[in-house]
């Protein structure tokens, strides 16, 4: 029946005043439940999530990073992120923290409020997307989500995506397209940039009842959510000098970050992807970082007896600038501000991206899909092959 439907069935059977959802593969620590219930008792529109720690496959317990909050990327994935700006300033101690998105498997919510707010989308099948859908809905329709660091629950993280029930159908993306249509307003075009095949596709099914729900609850706009709940979030096309795939002129290949979910990710050069993939979407920000939605490019080490500094992708520290994360784009070369060296395509051991003393070799020249303007209004969107329609352009232009 799928995850969301199973939860709905459980919620309908429950008789207590508070629903507590916990994945089966969890282990609560001492007194984990009381803080969650207290928050819901104090405010029935507040949804409480514990701090999720990690149980490995041998059930060893390790403490999760207390600074991380739940968010999403525009490809439709749930992500953990380090808050910046205002969000970071309210994130200092062991008090409850407002979180834009919940991971979804562990939370407590007033039972009557759960149904008032529209239960889950009954067309969500299999797994995925229901956490984003519910998080957007809670915030936009008057509720709130809080992560409580004093409630600790260990969770066994799945290392791979579940096998698809229907092999040719990515139900996670289908669910995400539904929620994008209902909740994300113009920002849905960001999702379709990565997944254009779901745009105006009847395969996502009838969404009219969910749209009526949003109408009935008089929910706020997605722009409001981005401005007030997920504030200071990096937007791939906003306040940037250049944006899109980052193509090496000599090889014609594009910079890609590895999917491997480690703190430090390696980079490589791969065939340029159409449609755009998140792993190949780069922005040179007005602040001078070279980043995607999750990571910033940085130099991490000098290879001994060479002049090469390898380039990898790490967490962005735009609040506490790391000198190794700043770049300048000058006449086709990407100059590392601190080392005064140039980004270059290499074949050195397993590495493909490095900086070295600048010269005029073609493997030091790079082009982005879009350059030269800091606002969306002036992009020549149709010079690339990433956009399909004028509607799409107008929607993206209206994102603040
Ligand atoms: Mn789980």
From TrEMBL:
Enzyme Commission numbers on file: 2.4.1.-
Chief place of localization: Golgi
Protein topology in the membrane: Single-pass type II membrane protein
Record keywords, A-Z: Disulfide bond, Glycosyltransferase, Golgi apparatus, Lectin, Manganese, Transferase
Pathway assigned in UniProt: Protein modification; protein glycosylation
Transmembrane segments: none
Main enzyme class: transferase
Occurrences of domain Ricin B lectin (ranges): 242-369
Co-factor(s): Mn(2+)
InterPro entries reported in the protein's UniProt record: Galactosyl_T_C (IPR027791), Glyco_trans_2-like (IPR001173), Nucleotide-diphossugar_trans (IPR029044), Ricin_B-like_lectins (IPR035992), Ricin_B_lectin (IPR000772)
Cellular location(s): Golgi apparatus membrane
Annotated family: Belongs to the glycosyltransferase 2 family. GalNAc-T subfamily.
Protein name as annotated: Polypeptide N-acetylgalactosaminyltransferase
Gene source species: Plutella xylostella (Diamondback moth)
